[in-house]
Inverse folding.
């Protein structure tokens, strides 16, 4: 019988969540490095370079690679010859580890969990509770897989029940474009096949913890039907031309993972969950000898890639911006933003709409006229930081607010990540505004461009409050121009015509 101390489990969970907030898995770094070398699309190649440089910066600075530090999922395989020495339940031990990790003063992680899920959706402030899956197995140890999954990729999860005679690969090829770019490709697709509805989705999530080995599979060739399916889906999805950040390119997925379970003869349940550019997971085991020992990656594990903000980018002074200036910008053009901008996400937009609808107007001191709003919820700063990691959130969630913001506030444009929907694009075109994107998964890199930050409204919303940022050479790309042309439509169309060469 193995005895595991309560504090050893709590400390291991806390240490693991801190670790994965700033260390990518080495297999992801190497796979993305290969994809960057292979990529022919300039926009996608630049986005990959930003992600890789951000990854190394986060590792060196021990700060989150993405501002969305996720909701925690833990898979536990508990040996039947294990007992715990402690006074709280296993779930409570795990949640105490989550609490300590997210409130760590040296590297506080953004708390994103709200409870209840409907109604007033109040933030729990410590990112608890985790989602826990427990399996009892023979043995004298506890094996744990810990992940922190961002909302942008989690929101793109898909489920279906196919007819047994249907093509699963056809469904994936048809479904991935409907997911847009909010899951921050390039990433990994996890697919669960069989069982029941809930089993398929859990398998899809668990499959994302498996090592990336597509490069090895391509080299040796598939040896069974599951590997055949993985390779077919990998090639068909990459042939869609979606590319990094949805900008168009050769690599949309770095790997496809599959888990299977027996199912009813009348059913073919399929769950599909993507992992984003901020892939965060780790496995470890406890055998009673103390907390888990986590070995950091070496700096030489990162490819030798540099990235500079300059080049052929156009510098923009947002404090002296005229409407005619915006009309000259082209989809896919790189800009370096300078000057002041305001921020706001879902909760702030909802509150603004309610104020405008009631006739109360905007809070004193808030003026959006001629300005940009950045869809972001930053991590709290530490030490001498102006602001913590501050990458973009998925812009489509703000689509329903776009017309009223442009009509009622005089907003010049918006900054986020991923595509905009038809209604938002129409509003942008009608008001001759513009939508820009920053690279999702490069939050620490983006934060280095922020020279000052202060909360100017809705402080009670926490990370969803309205900030005023002053930035210097913040890198963005024009995604929707003032005529309503979208790079997320034209980019994939262009690269879909190019035959994918196996990497």
């Amino acid at each position: 019988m193995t005895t595991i101390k309560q504090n050893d489990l709590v400390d291991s969970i806390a240490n693991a969540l801190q670790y994965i907030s700033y260390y990518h898995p080495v297999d992801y770094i190497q796979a993305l490095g290969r994809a960057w070398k292979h990529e022919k699309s300039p926009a996608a190649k630049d986005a990959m370079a930003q992600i890789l440089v951000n990854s190394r910066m986060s590792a060196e600075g021990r700060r989150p690679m993405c501002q969305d530090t996720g909701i925690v999922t833990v898979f536990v395989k508990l040996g039947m010859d294990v007992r715990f020495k402690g006074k709280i339940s296993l779930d409570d031990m795990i949640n105490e580890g989550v609490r300590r990790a997210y409130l760590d003063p040296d590297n506080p992680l953004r708390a994103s969990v709200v409870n209840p899920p409907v109604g007033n959706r109040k933030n729990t402030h410590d990112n608890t509770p985790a989602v826990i899956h427990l399996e009892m197995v023979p043995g004298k140890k506890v094996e744990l897989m810990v992940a922190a999954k961002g909302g942008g990729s989690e929101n793109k999860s898909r489920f279906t029940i196919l007819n047994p005679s249907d093509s699963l690969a056809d469904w994936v090829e048809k479904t991935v474009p409907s997911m847009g770019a909010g899951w921050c490709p390039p990433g990994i697709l996890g697919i669960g096949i069989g069982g029941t509805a809930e089993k398929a989705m859990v398998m899809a999530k668990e499959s994302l913890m498996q090592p990336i080995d597509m490069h090895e599979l391509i080299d040796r060739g598939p040896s069974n039907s599951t590997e055949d399916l993985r390779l077919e889906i990998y090639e068909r999805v990459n042939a869609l031309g979606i590319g990094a950040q949805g900008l168009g390119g050769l690599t949309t997925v770095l790997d496809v993972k599959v888990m299977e379970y027996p199912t009813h003869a009348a059913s073919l349940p399929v769950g599909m969950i993507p992992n984003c550019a901020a892939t965060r997971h780790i496995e470890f085991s406890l055998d009673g000898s103390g907390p888990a020992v986590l070995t950091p990656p070496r700096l030489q594990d990162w490819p030798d890639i540099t990235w500079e903000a300059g080049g052929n980018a156009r510098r923009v002074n947002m404090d002296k911006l005229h409407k005619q200036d915006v009309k000259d910008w082209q989809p896919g053009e790189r800009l370096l933003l300078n000057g002041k901008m305001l921020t706001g996400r879902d909760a702030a937009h909802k509150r603004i709409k309610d104020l405008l609808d009631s006739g109360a107007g905007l809070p004193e001191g808030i003026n959006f006229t001629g300005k940009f709003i950045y869809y972001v919820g930053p991590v709290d700063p530490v030490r001498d930081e102006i602001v913590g990691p501050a990458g973009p959130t998925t812009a489509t969630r703000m689509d329903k607010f776009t017309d009223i913001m442009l009509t009622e506030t005089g907003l010049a444009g918006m900054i986020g990540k991923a595509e905009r929907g038809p209604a938002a694009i129409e509003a942008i075109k009608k008001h001759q505004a513009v939508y820009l994107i920053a690279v999702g998964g490069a939050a620490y890199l983006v934060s280095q461009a922020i020279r000052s930050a202060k909360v100017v409204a809705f402080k009670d919303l926490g990370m969803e409050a309205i900030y005023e940022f002053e930035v210097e050479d913040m890198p963005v790309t024009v995604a929707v121009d003032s005529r309503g042309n979208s790079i997320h439509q034209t980019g994939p169309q262009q690269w879909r015509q190019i035959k994918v060469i196996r990497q």
